[in-house]
Design brief:
This protein is mainly alpha-helical. The chain contains 16 helices and no strands.
Length: 327
């Protein structure tokens, strides 16, 4: 995510990163989804874990923007924070992901509880998904609360749920008993990389999907590949060998909500005017500075309001540990 926001102005690199880095979060959310007993309680939990940090950090960045510009709070910034997180948020545009994931999970939960037939459920999700993907192209006005981004990600959440249930996940796609399937899967990864180069760059925040079916294919295959690589690494070294990664997972909300702040600081140090609404390039020396700044900015002591996880916490710890041991 941080690499995606630095913008190296290397076309192929950016296309590959954007092809999977946000879809991967929605797919993992689907892998950790469990149908709740109470929709009301589920909405309360998601509101606390996703909307609360959105508004806390959103107000924080409004204050930072006022101090930086030496002006009063602009009305358009308040409207963007309250209604349109995919456009014109001051400094931290990545906050759009929180309301988008919130709406996506709530809609998916409602569909999952109401529609029992698997085919009808899948068809409903696909229709809503492609409505979101073509939202801008068919001339529908900008949606509040990242609604179009949320419904366009519904299929990613559903694919995560089904991927968890798939027998290949239980055995491991890269297992010896699945040699032929692994070969086919690697071919699909190669094809998806080539397709990502030829397809317009994905930007879920702005609703730029290029050729939506191709984009979904690329994002799904590359995300599954990343998950399988993580599975292999876990089997070889176990999570205790990666304390920094455990730290990132525990405070991933903080990483999401402050990842633009170190970039802004570095630009200031290099005397490069930073316009968060104008995604310009950052030099490689700045990248090294960002890498140095991130561990400092994201410690619990310096980020006391950091909330536990980007993925809904109620299902993360126990559910993921059980499934990892099972895999």
């Amino acid at each position: 995510m941080v690499l995606g926001h630095i913008h190296f102005n290397i076309e192929y690199f950016d296309k590959i990163v954007y092809a999977f880095h946000m879809p991967l979060f929605f797919i993992i959310s689907g892998m950790l989804y469990k149908q709740p007993d109470s929709l009301k309680d589920y909405i309360k939990r998601r509101t606390k874990s996703l909307l609360l940090p959105y508004f806390v950090f959103g107000m924080f960045y409004l204050i930072i923007d006022v101090l930086r510009e030496g002006t009063t709070v602009a009305l358009k910034d308040i409207i963007s924070l309250l209604l349109y997180p995919t456009y014109e948020l001051p400094i931290e545009s990545a906050l759009w992901f929180l309301p988008a994931l919130y709406i996506s999970l709530i809609i998916y939960c409602v569909i999952d509880r109401i529609i029992r037939n698997g085919f009808i459920k899948c068809a409903t999700i696909v229709l809503l998904t492609f409505l979101g993907c073509y939202w801008n192209k068919i001339g529908i006005p900008i949606s509040p609360w990242a609604f179009s981004s949320a419904i366009s990600s519904l299929l990613f959440v559903h694919l995560g749920v089904k991927y968890r249930e798939c027998r290949y996940v239980q055995k491991g796609i890269t297992g010896k008993t699945n040699f032929y399937f692994t070969t086919i899967f690697m071919m699909l990864v190669f094809i998806s990389i080539l397709a990502a180069f030829s397809n317009p760059q994905l930007n879920m925040r702005l609703g730029d999907w290029g050729i939506a079916p191709v984009t979904y294919f690329n994002a799904t295959i590359l995300s599954f590949a990343i998950i399988e690589v993580a599975h292999i690494i876990y089997k070889q070294w176990k999570p205790n060998a990666f304390p920094y990664l455990r730290f990132v997972g525990k405070y991933s909300i903080a990483f999401l909500c402050v990842n633009h702040l170190p970039i802004m600081i570095v630009r200031k140090l290099f005397e490069e005017p930073y316009d968060d609404r104008d995604e310009r390039d950052l030099s490689l020396p700045s990248l090294r500075s960002v890498a140095d700044e991130l561990p400092i900015c994201l410690t619990p002591e310096s980020c006391p309001c950091a909330l536990p996880t980007m993925i809904p916490r109620s299902t993360t710890s126990s559910l993921m540990s059980k499934r990892i041991r099972h895999w």
